[in-house]
Amino acid sequence: MAKPRPSTPEPTRWIIHDERVIDDTRRLQLSIAQVELPDGVHFEQYVLRMPKAAMTVLLDDERERVLMIWRHRFVPDCWTWELPGGYVDSDEDPAITAAREVEEETGWRPRSMTLLSRFQPLIGSADFENLLFLGEGAEDTGQPADINEAARVEWITLDSVRDRIARNEIIGAGTQIGLLHILAFHAPQPH
């Protein structure tokens, strides 16, 4: 039996009548939701829920280069430049997660961290909040990059980012969002 519609005017709100978990692991939960559209149509929707993730756009002191990792992604079987990042532990501050991931994956320690933005990369099918941080300045710890995360770690010039995206060298949504955010709002302005 359908739940009564709320008395507050939300004429376009989708109603979830039930959600059944199909698989639940450490890094994702897959379920099927019973959904009712505003026009009364009912259907099933797969729903993916993942832990919060944090990534960092780390700029050098001159704000002309960004620290990136070159890595292989096995699911699409391709090589790509990415920003360092990872899952946020439930008891950890996301800014600390972001800084820790930079250091573990690259061997560089950010001097400062500021939250830039939050986004959902698959908002129609998944709940996977991503937090995007700006790191400014960094210290080389002398530790090597994590071999499981990066084949190479390089400071990439910001003025090469658009061409790298066009050449499909930067394909991750979060990385593109972070870099384009910096280019739009934080890049040094020409004199």
Task: Note the topology.
Elements: E1 15-24, E2 29-36, E3 42-49, E4 53-59, E5 65-73, E6 78-82, E7 85-87, H1 94-106, E8 108-110, E9 113-119, E10 126-127, E11 130-136, E12 138-140, E13 152-157, H2 161-166, H3 173-185
Parallel strand pairs: 3-10, 4-11
Antiparallel strand pairs: 1-2, 2-3, 4-7, 5-6, 5-13, 8-12, 9-11
Distance between the termini: 66 Å
Helix content: 10-25%
Helix/strand/pairing class, anyone? alpha+beta
Output the radius of gyration. 20 Å
Looking at CATH, the homologous superfamily of the largest domain is: Nucleoside Triphosphate Pyrophosphohydrolase
- The proportion of strand residues reads 35-45%
Side by side, the strands of the main sheet go: 1-2-3-10
Order of helices and strands: EEEEEEEHEEEEEEHH
Which architecture of the largest domain does the CATH hierarchy give at level 2?
Answer: Alpha-Beta Complex
Number of H/I helices: 3
User: For the report, how would you describe the main beta sheet?
Assistant: 4 strands, mixed
CATH-defined fold name of the largest domain: Nucleoside Triphosphate Pyrophosphohydrolase
